[in-house]
Amino acid sequence: xxxxxxxxxxxxxxxxxGAGLMLSGMADPRRVLGFLDVAGRWDPTLLLVMGAAVAAxxxxxxxxxxxxxxxxxxxxxxPSIRRITPRLVLGSVLFGIGWGLCGVCPGPALVNxxxxxxxxxxxxxxxxxxxxxFDAWNRxxxxxxxxxxEASRP
Length: 154
Fold this sequence. Notes:
By secondary structure, the chain is mainly α. The chain is built from six helices and no strands. Helix content is 70%, strand content 0%.
C-alpha cells in the first residue's frame, strides 16, 4: 500500500474515532465528570461506551495478535513490559488527576479543538506543553543515566 493510501486510511480511522467520541458524548467534559462523580449524580454512559468499545475491539485484536505485520504493512508491536512499575502508577495517578479535574483526556481534547472554544484550545496547548516538558526531562534523564553508566565502567 502506498504511503498516501496509508495516510488516508489513518486519517479515516482518526475521523471515525472522533465521530464516535462526538456521537457518544465522550468529548463533553460534563459527561465524563458525571461518570467520575460516583458520590453524586453518577452518569454510567462512559462505562457503557467503554464496554461497547472493548467488545467491538476484542475480535480484531485477537486476529491482530496472530499476525506478523499490520494490515498497512507495519510491524505488529505490542507492549513487552507487562509488570506494574512505579512509573506506570505515577503516570496513571497524574493522568487520573488531570482527567478528574477537567473531564478531558487526549482523544477528546483533540476533537474539542473543533469547538473553537478558548478553554479547549488552552487545555490542548497545555497538554502539548506538558508532553514536551516530559519528553525533554526523559531525554535528559536517559543521557544522565548513560553518562553515569559509562563513568562507572573500568
